[in-house]
TrEMBL record, chains A, B:
Organism domain of life: Eukaryota
Listed PANTHER family: CASP-LIKE PROTEIN 1U1 (PTHR36488)
Signal sequence segment: 1-24
Pfam families registered for this protein in UniProt: CASP_dom
Membrane topology: Multi-pass membrane protein
Domain Casparian strip membrane protein: 4-142
Stated name of the protein: CASP-like protein
NCBIfam families: A_tha_TIGR01569
Quaternary assembly: Homodimer and heterodimers.
Keyword Transmembrane helix: yes
Transmembrane region(s): 52-71, 80-103, 130-155
Major site of localization recorded for this protein: membrane
Length: 160, 160
């Protein structure tokens, strides 16, 4: 039973590491430019603080997840990992939500504020952002399940 | 010791309920308009999906927090509350981050995308959004502490 639980935790962490790495790389490599009426519209993740935060948060999440794989499961350090798991889960959620909000404006614009959509002009950039968001969402779900799995382990009498 | 722990949990939940209620109300009452060159710029939270999500998430967070106060602490239901606590913590984090990303664009704009800042034109709206974000941030911190407090209670041998 303990072996199955550890295998489940390992698989979830590998999924989270892969998803956050994929999210960070896909967002970091997003770049597109176009010329409209002689003006060049250049789209990079560095131009938007929310997307920069997204790349940093997913890189941190990936690094942390890989580090945790080397923490022996019986030490007291392993019991502190849950505290960091909750922190990383909230960090990844914040990054995904902030980037998602920006992606929504990029795709649909906001006519009330006079912000035009840009995805028609820089489709390759928007495709990269969408791909990165899907990967990050998988990472958030994986971290949610990691936290729930730990709670399940701690509260096992409740789930016979 | 158990009494102090329960009091601490109660105070954190009251703080979370007050903060999320304040965030939802302040954001829901945000409204400002101005006229520039004969064009009316009308700013309401309903015009931005991220801000609508913010109001709904904080209202849900507040309602849930008040409901939990009536769950008896010794029932098995009270042990399931931690699962919902993690969910609400992530929901509030997502709402605050998404609204924060929009507030950043509203305040500073994004010259690369051609999005102009609007806070100079509708300062009252931006002040409301900023106030709501501060309240929501307090709610997120309160929920983070609620989750850590539960983990502390479950792992109490680790923290003598």
């Amino acid at each position: 039973m303990a072996k199955t639980s550890r295998l489940c935790s390992l698989l979830l962490r590998l999924l989270a590491a892969a998803a956050t790495l994929c999210a960070a790389v896909v967002m970091a490599t997003s770049h597109d430019s176009t010329t409209i009426f002689g003006l060049t519209l250049d789209a990079k993740f560095q131009y938007t603080p929310s997307l920069e935060f997204f790349v940093v948060a997913n890189a941190v999440g990936c690094g942390y997840t890989l580090l945790v794989l080397f923490v022996p499961p019986t030490t007291s350090l392993s019991r502190l990992v849950i505290v960091f798991d909750v922190t990383v889960a909230m960090l990844l959620t914040a990054a995904t939500a902030a980037a998602g909000a920006m992606a929504e404006v990029g795709k649909k614009g906001n006519s009330h504020a006079g912000w035009m959509p840009i995805c028609g002009q820089v489709p390759s950039f928007c495709d990269h952002v969408m791909g990165a968001l899907i990967c990050a969402f998988v990472g958030v779900i994986a971290y949610f399940l990691i936290v729930l799995h730990t709670i399940y382990t701690l509260l096992s009498p409740l789930f016979p």
